[in-house]
Amino acid sequence: MPAVKFFKTYSVRASEISPTYLLKDFFVGMYFQDCFAEYMASKNLAAYDLSRLGLTWLTSDVIVEFGGKMPFWRENVDIAVWFWKLGSARAYVDFEAFSGGQRIARGSSIQLIASIGAHKPVRLEPYLSSIETEKCGAFESCQFTKICERGEFAGETSQVVRFDDLDFNMHLNNVKYIPRALEAIPLNYRNSHSLKSYRLKYMRETFFGNTVKSVAMAAGDSFFHRLVRCEDGLELCRAETFWTSPHSD
After folding, report:
1. Helix or strand or coil: residue 91?
2. How far, in whole angstroms, is CA 58 from its chain's centroid?
3. Is 207 exposed, middle or buried (0-12, 13-18, 19+ CB in 10 A)?
4. CB 24 within 8 A of CB 16
């Protein structure tokens, strides 16, 4: 029987660390994306394989939860990725991240195969029929519910999409969305709190040279985030982030 989970080990690089030499939390999501891409490459289903058919991978939703101390510079992070459910057009792909034998993060995502031009999702069965699924996901229960606006205005910032921000689809890479969302949170809050979990809902793509505005609204120990393309006012992404302080129980 084919292996259900795919594993890869990463070493924390200097470009991925905080001033305390620990891995920045949002880089875990980047490891997940890279590991998933390697998994699909092993199945001849990488983006460059699908592109020959006029198709590509798109991420619709992501949930990530952190736990345990982030690894130190040059320490290893072990990532496990697997499918746990295949719908007609949605693939539910989860991951776990471990360092030193301790789980530091886990997450769930919805992945789509879509046409390159129109980004219309296609049926998965012709492409993923050989994929084995695990019996359960990373979470005991996981629902990708709607992210609704809430809270009081906390901050706003804007950044231009640079060429090195682009992915293989020539869009702003989806792993860049969470750090851009976090930029709008006041620095004093970020310096005194740790990211506990986040949810992302991707709504549309944006391109080189576009200006993306990030707005954060505070609601207790969480924030609602919106990313908007300034050129036409269209909403690109919604997110929620949940935080904890060192003095929390």
Report:
1. strand
2. 11
3. middle
4. yes
Contact 14, 73 (CB under 8 A): yes
For the chain, the first-to-last Cα distance in angstroms comes to 45
Cβ proximity of 192 and 124 under 8 Å:
no
* Token representation of residue 45: 């289903």
Q: For all residues of the chain together, what is the average pLDDT?
A: 93
Rounded CA separation 87/4 (Å): 17
User: Which tens digits make up the pLDDT trace of 152-177?
Assistant: 999 999 999 999 998 887 889 888 99
Residues in contact with 61: Cβ distance below 8 Å, sequence separation at least 6, in sequence order? 109, 110, 144, 199, 200, 201, 202
**pLDDT score of 140 more than 90:** no
Q: Tell me: the pLDDT tens digits for 173-203?
A: 888 999 999 999 999 999 899 999 999 999 9
What are the E-state strand segments in the chain?
Answer: 5-11, 55-66, 76-86, 91-99, 102-115, 152-160, 194-202, 211-219, 222-229, 235-244
pTM above 0.70, yes or no: yes
